[in-house]
Structures
1.
Amino acid sequence: MTTKIRELLAKHGALPVSVETLADTADLYEAGLSSFASVQLMLALEDAFDVEFPETLLNRKSFASIAAIRDAVASLTEEPVA
Amino acid sequence: MNELAKAKALSLTERARRAAAVAAANADDVDAAGRFPREAVDAMKAERLLGIQIPAYLGGESATTAEIAEVCCILGQACAASGMVFAMHQIKASSLVSHGEGAPWHEAYMRRIAADQLLLASATTEGGIGGNLRNSICAIEVDGDTCRLTKDATVISYATEADAILITSRARADSAPSDQVMTVFEKGQYTLEKTHHWDTLGMRGTRSDGFIFKGEAPAEQILPKPFAEIAAQSMLANSHILWSGVWFGIASDAFARAQVFVRAAARKTPGTVPPGALRLAEASNLLQLVKSNILAALQQYDAAQKDETKLSSMGFAVAMNNVKIASSQTILEIINHCLLIAGIMGYKNGTPYSLGRHLRDAHSAQLMISNDRILGNTSTMLLVNKQDTSLLG
């Protein structure tokens, strides 16, 4: 999942730095992720993982790092515990 | 009794009304001369209004956003430029109150704002960023305990009158344009070289000239939180709500003038309803819409302040953007209705029904942060954020 997220970030994040140089926990806003690019990234993630982000996940924190995005996507794709 | 205790013996709205009376007496001259509303701001200081937002434990009054919006409205009815200076000062104060707590320098400074009634100005606009305050070109340079900044600030409202300027920049020389910080520079810590002259259609008293800002100050004056958080969590809501408070004030004063006109006409022709009465009813409907919208935003902000996730959410940003769009557009419609009611008496300057200043001041609302930019921003968010379709949610 992380590989896919990195791939989408490289394509839609419009970052001034290369995604390979970023650690999973690096702050993406510090790296230059704009609000417009973050929305493009969200749309790409929704498409790639066939999920829809609920209102509760549409905030800065959920997209602050690659690890945070992975957690957000994982919370939507994992089988719900019965 | 000290000054604050004296001021506090009156209610906040009574104090605001006394300052507003001074603002009203000078409003036409401030407008005609395009000068800073000195008398009104002095009256705000005398009424201890500049420190009301500062927490009580730092010498302020812990005023809520709703209370501050009410003061904005009262001042806006008297003189829109005075109301806007007060609103802009309080928006900057909200950055300190929301994000300076726990930082020793900023806490001490808040204490001084309340004690000495200091006036805060803002420098978020920069030549070359295309009006997007979430981007900076200039970067602050931290050298040991000192920070230095040079900024081509194309707008700093009442810069030469302020006691401090809160200014944005990139966090470091190698930072991305959106990785910003905000720094408090006190008067005496900067120089201003004027580059743009403020000679405008309306809001002439805010003196929003442009300057090359050059400052040097202790590095501890940089706010500890990233500007991105300040912008999302306190500036967005405070700006849109407090500006709307001022704008509602302009429109409600225009309405009051039109109503006096209609009532005078009704008294002259007993038994008939004057022709302007129907338009007044329409304007009353629009005025209520603006008011309800601001009140709903205050409620939403109040709820979101207890929940940081909500405060940073897209849904909240969309709602605040919508408040700004609605108030800035609707007040023009209201004032235009009032002008149709008062006719030539409203069009002429110097009558009790004059509306020229109101109309000109109100036209700034859709431009100060362009509505097109805000709608563009909202439209991006709506690509992923689903509108809450419930009534109470």
2.
Amino acid sequence: MASDNYEAIIGLEVHTHLATRAKLFCGCSTAFGAPPNQNICPVCAGMPGTLPVLNRGAVELALRVGLAMSCEIAFESVFARKSYFYPDLPKGYQITQYELPLCRGGRVELPPDREGRSRTVRLTRIHLEEDAGKNIHTGGASLVDLNRAGVPLLEIVSEPDLRTAQEAGAYLRELREILRYTGASDGRMEEGSLRCDVNVSVRPAGSEQYGVKVEIKNLNSFRFVERAIEYEVGRQIEALAAGATLTQETRLWDAGRSVTRPMRSKEFADDYRYFPEPDLPPLVVAPAWVAQVRAKMPELPAERRTRFTRELGLGPYEAGVLTQQRELADYFEALAAQVTNRRSAANWVMTEVLRFANESNKPLAEAVSPAVEAAALLRMVEAQQISLNAAKTAFAALCAGWQKGEHKSATDLVAELGLTQVSDEAEIAAACDRLLASESVKVAEYRAGRDKLFGFFVGQVMKAMGGRANPKVVNQVLRRKLQS
Amino acid sequence: MANALNDLTITEARRLLVERKISAVELTKACLARIAATEPRLNAFITVCEKEAALQAEDADRCLSAGDAPPLCGIPIALKDILTVRGVRATCGSRILENFVPPYDATVVARLRSAGAVFLGKTNLDEFAMGSSTENSGFGPTLNPYDLRRVPGGSSGGSAAAVAADQCLAALGTDTGGSIRQPAAFCGVVGLKPTYSRVSRYGVVAYASSLDQVGPLAKSAADAALLLAAIAGADPRDATCSARPVPDYTAGLAGEIAGVRLGVPREYFGEGIDPEVRARVEAAIKALTAMGAKPVEVSLPHTRYAIAAYYLIATAEASANLARYDGVRYGVRAGADNHLDLYRRSRSRGFGAEVKRRIMLGTFALSAGYYDAYYLKAQKARTLIRRDFLDAFERCDLIAAAVSPTTAFGLGEKTSDPLTMYLSDVFTIAVNLGGLPALALPCGYDGRGLPVGLQLIGPAFSEELLLRAGHAYERCGFSRRRPAAL
């Protein structure tokens, strides 16, 4: 296949809202979903004579992200004006950082894939800037909502270190987790709090030179990022294989048709006339501030992965899956602390918990019954009071109830559903006797050497006891009775 | 002693008000009457706030009677129409904002309000403070009270003319490249451009953000001191505003100027300066010397790059600052089918020729490929100019020079040639690039009876010394002639 002869070079520019309560340069709320133009003031509406004043809380969150990604923090960084006309840009310029960003360099370690291979993506820079408002087009008219204007954004620019759509997806997921772990952002792409532009080029495999770069905009979900990259890489390879030349351009992802298409030239300007923002003094970040932020840093996904493998004895892949969402890892840790067998806790989270979380499409805390109930179930399994299958049945019922707002205890539910395991030998022996008496032909066949029939007898006893019998005891009793 | 109440200085009026010999209502009425009588000829105001002023004066009288009067209680003041007053339209002298009513007070306005001042109205200016004659106003030119065929200077021409014509006791202006000092000189009043960052810029509609500064225009240095004390100081709404404590400028007036080293920059007394202006300024330096100041020759060699640097930096900043006037949220909005046409038509209709010229100049200076050659080069020149001043202030305490090379020029005399107009700011612009404070003082009259302005320039945050020197000069026998033209 032609694509094997080419290599894709991918770099990402990620914009994320920072989880501050106030906007970057005024005191307005950043709350999502307010009625249009509710969270605005003269400053973020760009009224004449108003001035920006930097929200230091946003800088603190940016520092956390910068430190989490091992960036070099600039002692002095400078805000700049980026000029362009658009109705959702109230001042006619965006305040951003240009020549001197807050963070330079840095890297993100991707979690290991199924084969255990991990990868490091280098960063170019991270800087602070303000978001624009939103244009809403309704039959014939365009309306402007400035609620989002001035909300703090962090732009995280990667080096062109990614090679596949899957890697880009893994990078984005890891980035989102770092943002969540540091409390810098909720990382919700659907609310526009995480947005992504992609730079893609291809080159013949083994070549050292970069090909012609194409920028793809308008990507608002991880899935679209991956699909757009796949499409764009395919398009470029096809063009090159056919002997065509590519042009450096900006393309838009058309989600409806699942293609990228060239942006009309009017849709972007290429001369932003950057110059230092005279209304803001240079941002000075004293080493003491950095030290303070560093001291308060929470454990990060990569550190947690290492701890899970070293201290809890998990494999690198398992540790990767469990740490891919902060809430999932928290759930696992809560569960593991309450049971003896950590591996069974890990398996439980990776299968049962993840399944209900994914199926419900809700945040983990709303989708899944609390870890304390799962722990109760696992302890009952460990104590042989219920079977593993019964635990799964009980957990499914608990989660279904939890999603509807009911909160039952595992113990009550197991009792209610009659899932308690019977280990009483007398009761099991009586059931075995009844079965063997009614199946005298099969008993004779078994004794004549058809060993396979043993499973049949176990199954029948279990069935007769409504699945509640302790299979171990059933096995022991049956074997004894059939041997005698 | 003045003839009418509106002729009073703030210092005089304050005494009479506190002693309850006059009322704030009477004082305000006298000013409003003078405005009504002279405005048809002068055109110093764009908006007169008769009702609001009357209400504020009544409030002031209540405070005065209660013996609880803040420092400017009942003092009628005019505001350059580039400062925002809640609920009063702020045009900036531009048609593009002719209907714009801001819902917020500028910090300086809020401070004057809490100091008890009465706001008479908003004064005329060159559109967005871009000009040196007030002829670039969208609301017609203001005339010079000393000669109605001449300009009052600009861009704070309305404020200067209003003070000179005794329409108010004092006024606020803004100074980006001489816009307080040059009209103060042309109209024979005191004008102070404070150190950049001394006074908050919140609510001051931006022309060139790194240069703009608000300051007083008054009838005496003592009045300027009172106003500066009221408006200066840290502001949480302006990140560039200094946190340095504000001294008691009025107390500072009392000191001596004996021993103050007075720098005389040779570059400011050479070619291009009108001989009569030069003679009056030199006489003023002699008068200060007689009081004990010691003249020393200094040099500001990079002043010759000041105008070029200024017209790159100021216009670059202006090109971004004025981008918000797009017809989308406020101001003139031309009918259009799409947003690009909306911008084009609204801006074409709303802005005057000089503003368009400066936006284009600034846009060009910042364009890809030209940034290094123009904007960056200008910033380097600015650094050299700043260094000139630092070097000079190693050898002197204040610098003395003319405010402007000429006295007030005729209406229409320079409008056809922007470069000649720009050159009238040759002595004031370097001060803005250096971020320094400077005081303009009337120091005599030329043969036509037109006022001549002395400029005293100080190091950063030397307003106290500047005002003391100005006050000392006023006491040595110079007396202000009231304009005869009205």
